[in-house]
Amino acid sequence: MDQDKFVATFRSHLKDVSKYLTRRVEISNVEDLASEIFEIAWKKRESCPEGFELAWLYKIAGFVVSNHRKKLSRRSVMVPLLDHDRSAPSAEDVALDGSAVAEAFDRLSAKDRQVLSLLVFEQLSIKEIAVVLGITENNTSQRIKRARERLAKHLAQQVSDTHEGGH
Amino acid sequence: MKNQFENDPVLGQLSKAARRSKAPKLSEDLLVAASKDSSVKAGKFRLPALFLSLASATAAVALVAVVANPAITNTESYSQTEFNEDLLVKSGESRVDGSFMSNPDLPGQASLLLEADFGEFYANKDWSTQLDLEASGYFLVRNSQLFEVYHPIDSPSKFWEITRPKYIEEQGFNSTGLCYLVEYLYNPVFLVLASDGGLYNFVPKNLCDSIDGRIRLGEYLDELDEALNELGVKSTPMF
Fold first, then answer.
1. CATH of the domain at A54
2. Which of these, B60, B89, B118, B172, could form a disulfide with B113 (CB 3.0-4.6 Å)?
3. What is the nearest CA distance from A101 to chain B, expressed in angstroms?
4. What is the total count of domains within chain A?
5. pLDDT tens track for B32-41
6. From A109, which residue of chain B is nearest by alpha-carbon distance?
7. C-alpha to C-alpha distance for B230 and B72, rounded to whole angstroms
8. pTM of the model
């Protein structure tokens, strides 16, 4: 892939990458991190799966956001060997406006928030999410199913708490 | 924009609750700059920190490994070449020292996972096939300071177990983190006790993949722990 094709391929995804980053980092960092993402994308362009360019970009973006957050928390670079993915947004990051939903979303694990945000906020397909997470479609579906169940459980708990509080 | 989850009572709520964020507009120049030689954009764009982190981590681990055991660099069965292969390594001489124990709770844990339909999700077909094992029903389980590969149906003679960190450290490797992964030139390495009594290098490539600094094994084990927790099972320390 030469420079012209690279620009042509990823031009349409600039907006999506910006939105993805805006949901996860301070707006002042969006441009710098986007530059970092596209630098990596350029260096690794030969491994980009055809037809899944945006999902592939989100995969890189996940690493970049994780790394950015690790740097912010000033942790050692040696620690993250088995570290958690830190790219998942919080309720605050995605500016959830319903307090019950925000609370329920925040109670999910980072992994659950990550997979639900890719599905609901980034509106990726199962196939695309599988590319982002580097897992099979079957595993992706199961992960979504379980995350959704946990969210439903937390939402129901919120309703129940509210109901009990009212009496 | 149409809410594609409007018929889903759970995801529909989540989708509706998200406010539309105002994302900054990114210029196409950013793509042009990213695809130029790094010298052209010196000062404006730094090298991705991820690459630097990986490079320094690799160098540091290599140094520690060599200092801990200078002979390690001459150990053929742990050569760098092996890690470039996309296959499980089952070669070299047995390293068994004969002092292994099994966690008595593992059969129950693995059976519970199977019964609760977690089986397919956690069975790792890739490496179990490479080990000439039946593909289904094998679990890699973290048990406190231990990794174990377990098959709940087979006889004890087919019990596969990754050994305890103390033994690994005695081999001149470094264990790290809660899970005592062994690092060798930044590649996680496991030793597995096989049914023939031999202890072999174990490189489940698909789980140990460390591309871009993330190791899938960590996620896999977290999910497995989560599943066990949901079933009300707590890990039992062995040592």
1. 1.10.1740
2. B118
3. 6
4. 2
5. 888 875 433 3
6. B226
7. 42
8. 0.52
